[in-house]
Every structure is written in structure tokens, then in C-alpha cells.
Amino acid sequence: MYKHVLATYDGSKLSDKTLEEALRFAKQTGSKISLLYVLTPHHLLIGGGRPVPGLHRLEEQHMAALRQHANEML
Questions:
Q1: Half-sphere exposure of 15 (CA within 13 A, CB side)
Q2: The pLDDT of residue 47
Q3: What pTM value is reported for the model?
Q4: CA angle at residue 34 from 60 to 69, to 5 degrees?
Q5: Which range, 47-51, 52-56, 59-63, is most confident?
Q6: In the beta sheet, which residues pair with residue 32?
Q7: Which helix (H) or strand (E) holds 2?
Q8: How many angstroms separate the first and last alpha carbons of the chain?
Q9: Residue 53 to residue 31: CA distance in whole angstroms
Q10: How high is the pLDDT of residue 22?
Q11: I need a labelling partner for 17 at 20 to 30 A (CA). Which of 34, 51, 57, 64 fits?
Q12: 73/15 Cα distance (integer angstroms)
């Protein structure tokens, strides 16, 4: 009946419980399971709206750190 289960994961205790249930369900139904971790870009508010040298680079570094953290968790 079910072929694929999608579970969100963010490393919290609640998502750990959700993952356990999703894994149990996938095993019972013979389904594949995929995990989803959403990365939300954050725009730094520095300089009062004026252009700040290096701000884009800082935002890129922040996203890279978020991606690395997500990959480690998943």
C-alpha cells in the first residue's frame, strides 16, 4: 500500500521520536524512507540597510555551516 515515507528531521527530541515511528512504519509496510531537513537562508541585518563589504560572503558562510550541520545529522 505505502511505497515511500517522508519524515522531517531537525535533530530535536521530538524529531527523534518522529523518526523512530517513521522507521517502524516503513519497516512494517516495506516502504522506503526519506528524510527532509529544511535550510532557511537568513539575511543578516547589519549596517542599517546600507551596503556592507563582505556581508554576502558572511551569509554564504552561514549557509555552508547550516548545510554541514544538516549533512552530519542526516
A1: 13
A2: 66
A3: 0.64
A4: 30
A5: 59-63
A6: 4
A7: none
A8: 26
A9: 49
A10: 95
A11: 64
A12: 12
| E runs forming strands in the chain | 4-8, 32-36
List the one residue out of 37, 36, 55 whose CA is nearest residue 47. Answer: 55
The helix (run of H) or strand (run of E) holding residue 39 is none
Distance CA 25, CA 18 (A): 10
- The rounded distance, in Å, linking the Cα atoms of 11 and 5 is 18
Angle at 43 between CA 40 and CA 46, to 5 degrees: 155
Residue found under cell 515515507? 5
Question: What are 30's three cell numbers?
Answer: 516495506
Q: Name residue, grid cell 547589519.
A: 46
- Torsional class of 43: left (φ above 0), alpha (ψ -120 to 50), beta (otherwise): beta
